[in-house]
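Q: What would this complex look like in 3D?
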Amino acid sequence: EDQVTQSPEALRLQEGESSSLNCSYTVSGLRGLFWYRQDPGKGPEFLFTLYSAGEEKEKERLKATLTKKESFLHITAPKPEDSATYLCAVCSGTASKLTFGTGTRLQVTL
Amino acid sequence: KAGVTQTPRYLIKTRGQQVTLSCSPISGHRSVSWYQQTPGQGLQFLFEYFSETQRNKGNFPGRFSGRQFSNSRSEMNVSTLELGDSALYLCASSSQLAGGDTQYFGPGTRLTVL
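A: Here is my prediction, written as structure tokens for the whole assembly.
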């Protein structure tokens, strides 16, 4: 069974203080690893899809990387509007379902 | 393109009642998946429909069911509601010709069971 573990559970940063979120996974036959951002009471907003080890993707202040066992979401010089819960999910084998981690709650303060 | 839409956005029901939630996928997407999100269990997969056929199913009781129409719109139904069914129900769509395609989520339906 696929497993996804995210750390830390919560992270508080000052504006401009860069950091990384971790997503460790165990799957048989990774088809894709996904990062989403979720604001309270809203649906997850898609950020990145990674398919193979060594792949990297960037968008504004965010950069996602992938190894064979984990993925990192690097946040460079965050702003208060980056405050949200960041979710990691995997899809494996022939199934199309996503298995999610419990998320990292990020708070960025002035 | 318009995003995934879900109706209604909020529902309040009492134990024992049944409820139907609706999801319209992104135009051209043929796969619709449903997830339940609760503070205790996080996001959990309910089922997926592709071209009107249930392709995958999660570990939920038979009270949870769904269907997909020829225009790819989907509905999920929960019968004999329990207090524990209170959750945010999320619908996601993708082209999903093969596993691993990106799923795009709707805003969710907040169900409260009293």
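A: To summarize the key features: Chain B touches chain A at residues 4, 31, 33, 35, 42-45, 48, 50, 55-56, 58, 88, 90, 92, 94, 96, 98-108, 110 (CB under 8 Å). DSSP finds no helices and eleven strands in chain B.
Q: Very helpful, thank you.
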